[in-house]
Amino acid sequence: MPDHAEYDDIAAEYAASKQLPFRTVVEAPTLFSLAGDVRGLTVLDLPCGDGTYSRALARRGAASVTGIDLSHAMVERAEAAERDAPLGIRYAVGDAAELPAIGAFDLILTSYLFNYARTRAELQAFARSVARNLKPGGRLVGMNDNPRTAPDRFGSYATYGFSRTVEGPLRAGSRIRYDFPKADGTHFGFDNFWLAPATYEEVFAEAGLTGFRFVDAIADPAAGGDWSDFLRDCPITGLEARREA
Ligand SMILES: C[S@@+](CC[C@H](N)C(=O)[O-])C[C@H]1O[C@@H](n2cnc3c(N)ncnc32)[C@H](O)[C@@H]1O
């Protein structure tokens, strides 16, 4: 596990970006719709980041929530929130690429994990970590950079508060740069990596996760506004799978 993770440098900025409308109107409702009724479920949030979704699932009635992230700074933010308003969530620093069996969870939430895999082997490592921590019949739900997005849509999300760019033609391992301008004129960002949708399907099936599929993002109808442009060739996608029973 590295001493220093990319998100150690951008923990505060990333946490602030959770308030952007595309996250509250599209990302969160898509994730909650996929998770369904979590009351009474044991949940692993991998990666938990600052704990935004760990807290949401605890408040929605999960029996237990465990959050794991590679970044010390992100986990510290999550732990600080837990100290301020305890929900019984346990957090730890860990690498999702080599997570041992720490439980047999009913539900694993992976909000932007798999898009850090640069190769099929790295995606396999993530998928195996998920499989070894799901109980038989347990569910995986998550969000991801959308590998199905048409490349000509890249970079056209300025009105939503960010840009998404790729250099050259999309191929396995292509770096996808997300960049968020800040009010003070500076900006912050992070890199995701592209792998073909078919690679995802093959890797999850090999890991013993059945029915892997990307699920189109939705917009919360109560939020108002016209999100049809964002949802067409949407930069983000839901996903789901199940561990074979
Ligand atoms: C885009 S953030 C998402 C955080 C959270 N899931 C959310 O939706 O708010 C991506 C997170 O993945 C974490 N991450 C990246 N690679 C990881 C790995 N190999 N193991 C665990 N966490 C990782 C980063 O530290 C960062 O907090």
What is the molecular shape? globular
User: Whole-number radius of gyration?
Assistant: 17 Å
Q: What is the beta-strand fraction?
A: 25-35%
Count of discrete structural domains: 1
Give the rounded overall mean pLDDT: 95
Q: In DSSP terms, counting alpha (H) and pi (I) runs of 4 or more, how many helices?
A: 7
**Under the CATH scheme, which architecture would be assigned?**
3-Layer(aba) Sandwich
Number of strand segments: 10
CATH fourth-tier homologous superfamily:
Vaccinia Virus protein VP39
Characterize the largest beta sheet: strand count, sense, and whether it forms a barrel: 7 strands, mixed
Report on this model:
- The chain has 245 residues and is α/β, with parallel strands linked by helices.
- The chain has one domain (6-147, 195-243): Rossmann fold, CATH 3.40.50.
- Helix content is 29%, strand content 27%.
- It has 7 helices and 10 strands.
- It has helices spanning 11-17, 21-35, 52-59, 72-84, 120-133, 197-206, 228-231; strands spanning 42-45, 64-69, 90-93, 105-111, 134-145, 163-166, 175-181, 187-193, 209-215, 236-243.
- Strands 3-2-1-4-5-10-9 form a 7-stranded mixed sheet, sandwiched between helices. It has a 3-stranded antiparallel sheet with strand order 6-7-8, with helices on one face.
- The radius of gyration is 17 Å and the shape is globular.
- The two termini are 31 Å apart.
